[in-house]
Amino acid sequence: MADTDFSAEIDSLRHTLASIEQVSDLDRIKADIAELEQQASAPDLWDDPEEAQKVTSKLSHRQTDLKRITSLESRIEDLETMVELAAEEDEPSLLDDANQELTSIRKALEELEVVTLLSGEYDQRDAVVTIRAGAGGVDAADFAETLMRMYLRWAEQRGWSTKVMDTSYAEEAGLKSVTFEVNAPFAFGTLSVEAGTHRLVRISPFDNQGRRQTSFAAVEVVPLIESDDSIEIPESEIKVDVFRSSGPGGQSVNTTDSAVRMTHLPTGIVVSMQNEKSQIQNRAAALRVLQSRLLLLRKAEEDAKKKEMAGDVKASWGDQMRSYVLNPYQMVKDLRTGHEEGNPSSVFDGHIDDFVDAGIRWRAEQVKAAQED
User: In angstroms, rounded to a whole number, what is the distance separating the alpha carbons of residues 304 and 317?
Assistant: First the structure.
């Protein structure tokens, strides 16, 4: 009976992997690797260190993509061999090991399946995340800092690099706002489902009467601009202010006017950067983030026109997308997908993969439903 069950499970794993391979286009991945290897072997590659870094990074990521798929092929074959040995030698311990490996392979396939759903125009890009404190006073500022820590820990657990670009500290505690980059393939597509308004309900640690407080924070996610994106901003449309960088409580961390505040006059979009060492670096970083936001704004306008032509599409994103409740009970619930967990501490510690995966699957379903209408 166990052999029959394993046989069905292994067939199911192979079917799922075959679907993933088809969507992932293995031939395209292999062709990309061959082209990037040729570029990486050029003798003058490091004459342009920035471009060389891009080439070697892309090569490494594509090789990782291929390895993730081919290693699963080998693991499924090894699992089948393990089950056959267990049956021949009547070894229950081998079946236990096979069950554990089956669970592990199934989880790895589910993670790969989610990546195949990231097919948006900018989904493969790095991400720029901005978190802003909303209504709720000092609790909202504290919540904004908690969300920043949650996302940075989540990225660290994935092995993704991050870089904090700008922080605006609140007077009493927490952050008014923070902007950081997440550098990894599909970082934007993955994190874009986290965009929206997050709500926290708890007994306020800042209220001496111990009352329950509801506070809000907004999360914005945009794709990182690339050099070949045609987002040209005339100098006449930009206002640049310089000021001194500062840390918590107004403590000076820089004795020169190196921080930059860039305002895009036609849209009113404001970007501040203070974490680089020089004004030139901060200006370049601010311009890149401004271009990224304008790129997303342009796409949103295009999508709005398509939506207007197609008519009203239901299940659009709402302002409040997730609630974190610490009192009178413990629960984190996504209001779009219905996914919930009863351990907020674990969620705030960066364990949000299930929320992110559910969000990506939910979004894909909304897109599919809209296309069928």
Answer: 13
Pick the last residue of a domain from 73, 90, 115: 115
| Res. 25 pLDDT band, cuts 50 70 90 | confident
The beta strands (E) that lie in 184-330 are given as 196-203, 212-223, 238-243, 259-264, 269-273, 320-325
Is 297 found in the same domain as 238?
yes
Stated as kind and residue range, the H or E segment containing 168 is strand 161-169
b/e sequence 154-164, b meaning 16+ C-beta within 10 Å: bbeeeebebee
- pTM of the entire predicted model: 0.70
> By mean pLDDT, which of 15-19, 45-49, 228-232, 324-328 is the weakest?
228-232
**Would you place residue 14 in the very low, low, confident or very high pLDDT band (cuts 50, 70, 90)?**
very high
- Residue 216 structural domain: 125-225+310-370
Cβ neighbors of 373 (< 8 A, separation 6 or more) are 310, 311, 313
